[in-house]
Every structure is written in C-alpha cells, then in structure tokens.
Amino acid sequence: MIELCVAWLCLLVFVGGCCEVFAVVWKGEDVFVVGEVFTGVATQGGSIEEAVKNLREALELYLEEFPELGEEIDELDLVGLIHVEVVKAVG
Question: Which residues form the domain of 8?
C-alpha cells in the first residue's frame, strides 16, 4: 500500500530557458516517488530532496528531446489544485 505525502511541488526546469512544472510526491515502501503532472515523467529517491533532484534532471533530458512540450507547459493556465479521495467499494 502506498501512503500519500500531502505535497505538491513547483519546480523550475532550465532547458534553453525556464519552465515551471508541477509534481506530486508520495512515499513508497523504501523510496519517495515524484511524478510531474503534465509529462508523466516520474523518478524516485531515498529522500524527497533526492527524488526532486532526479526529477529535475529527468525533465531537463525529456524536454531537450521534446522542446515543444516545454512551450506547451509555459502556456498552461493552471486554475488550481484539488484533492480527490476515491473510496474503494468492498464486496
């Protein structure tokens, strides 16, 4: 079972410029996992700081390969963040 950390991250990624991305953090059994919302890029680390560092590096590589996504991210109009709880039906 995965425990969710109540944390959203806003990262600045520099790839021929700068774009702001949003990620969610959760704790696995032995690692922290960080996933970026728009691209789906995810990484892990032994600490939240290490996972975020790894995510930044992974996103920079990803956006070097797909620079048009960086432009799309810059154009996103973030309306807000919401928490959605899903209850599993038993039976």
Answer: 3-75
